[in-house]
């Protein structure tokens, strides 16, 4: 690991050793509950990540900055547990790195034996197929966890969860979100939530259960850039498009309603900072429903 060329050779050997045999497996709740230290030799680079692509490759400036940051320690510093490497458990053994390749490379250069990791179960193609098969509705609403559901710096949050759940689920959601989601569920919509972050599928489901909300679809890690992810995403998008006659996508300031068999859509603007934001969304949806009913009557 003394030179960049030596590291690239090591990286290539690591990737080839698991080529065609490394597949994700579900980690148990106990495995996913806490950040923990794992043997650095059990970590495998993601072959489809930009870090491993010859045309892009590692940024050695970033690696060196981490080397300097960690060099005063004999292992990863305690504060690294607040920002662990995000990994996915894989067959035949160990963990594939989802986020943190440069920190992993720095730890290798410094000879660290262990690194802190957070294990997640990302949504897989088979999970989405099961979600769709279990659904009895032909309408869905989709919301972005990071941009629409979770609180921004100026948002008013829902009442915090009681201890100890507030320590397990540290995210705060915007006021009115649970009531909004209940409205859609009671009116025949499937609830789908998305996140670019690396949340576990079961973790997000359990989080919403704390608010008595059942989410029907969960897709996490949408920020991934792997070729395999984009191939799976095309299939997923097609399955979802075939399943639902109506889809409502809710952003902080815009609602878009589309119809599967009609080349039309409706848009509604909403004030993202309004204290009655959730009620405003419901008002827009009711207006869209009235427009649809009127369109059918006029035909």
Strand and helix layout:
Blueprint: H1 4-17, E1 23-24, H2 29-33, E2 36-39, E3 43-44, H3 60-70, E4 85-91, E5 95-99, H4 101-109, E6 114-119, H5 125-134, E7 139-144, H6 145-149, H7 165-168, H8 177-186, E8 189-194, H9 201-209, E9 217-219, H10 227-243, E10 246-250, E11 254-259, E12 265-269, H11 277-298
Helix pairs in contact: 3-4, 5-10, 8-11
Would you give an account of this structure?
- With 299 residues, the protein is an alpha/beta fold.
- The protein has two domains: 4-119, Conserved hypothetical protein from pyrococcus furiosus pfu- 392566-001, ParB domain (Alpha-Beta Complex); 125-298, Rossmann fold.
- It is built from eleven helices and twelve strands.
- The protein has helices spanning 4-17, 29-33, 60-70, 101-109, 125-134, 145-149, 165-168, 177-186, 201-209, 227-243, 277-298, and strands at residues 23-24, 36-39, 43-44, 85-91, 95-99, 114-119, 139-144, 189-194, 217-219, 246-250, 254-259, 265-269.
- The strands form two sheets. Strands 1, 2, 3, 4, 5 and 6 form a six-stranded mixed β-sheet that branches. A six-stranded mixed β-sheet has the order 9-8-7-10-11-12.
- A hairpin with a 5-residue loop joins strand 11 (254-259) and strand 12.
- Helix 3 (60-70) packs across helix 4, helix 5 (125-134) packs parallel to helix 10 and helix 8 (177-186) packs parallel to helix 11.
- The longest helix is centred in the last third of the chain and has 22 residues, at 277-298.
- The chain starts with a helix and ends with a helix.
- The mean pLDDT is 88.
